[in-house]
Design goal:
The protein has 169 residues and is mainly β. It has one domain: Jelly Rolls, CATH 2.60.120. Helices cover 4% and strands 54% of the residues. 37% of the residues are buried.
Length: 169
């Protein structure tokens, strides 16, 4: 008997085939010297799945530099808005994500708690991958990952999240 051929399939493609890969964006985030903004991927407390983050992308629509702190398990300021711009990436599927994207487009104040694990500088008029983590960042029930965005002058930006979800725990 000969050796059977094997095919390497990247995990996001495998998860997409199963209808468990999701992507979404925040609304437009508007920052200035006195206003910050944030976007957060949240796994609800009563969830029975883990969220495995594939990647983040950060887009700066402005001609000014924008910075973003990547923070885990923080409580952001202001009243969260739930993004409606979220979809399963298996386009024929009607599966709805457990994970939620929340954001606040322009707020005064800082987040509380949490831990900054990285900072990104978004150069003008670009989209940059924030962190390519390929499922190594696991957002368990009741936890979250957030980008806290700020700038020295008026700027507009947006955050994209992609993640897959485990079978029920």
């Amino acid at each position: 008997m000969g050796k059977k051929p094997s095919v390497y399939v990247i995990n996001p493609a495998f998860q997409s085939e199963k209808g468990r890969l999701f992507a979404g964006t925040s609304g437009v985030l508007k920052t200035s010297a006195s206003k910050q903004a944030w976007a957060q991927l949240v796994n609800p407390e009563d969830s029975k799945v883990n969220l495995y983050v594939s990647f983040f992308a950060l887009t700066n629509f402005s001609i000014k530099l924008v910075k973003a702190d990547f923070v885990v398990n923080a409580i952001p300021p202001g009243t969260p808005i739930e993004s409606s711009e979220v979809s399963v990436l298996k386009l024929g599927s009607d599966v709805q994500p457990v994970g939620r994207i929340y954001y606040h487009p322009s707020v005064s104040g800082a987040f509380t708690g949490g831990k900054i694990v990285g900072t990104r500088a978004m150069t003008p008029l670009t989209t940059i991958p924030g962190f390519r983590v390929d499922g190594r960042l696991i957002i368990e029930p009741g936890t979250n990952a957030m980008f806290f965005v700020y700038s020295e002058s008026y700027a507009e930006s947006q955050i994209e999240f992609e993640w897959f979800e485990s079978d029920h725990l």
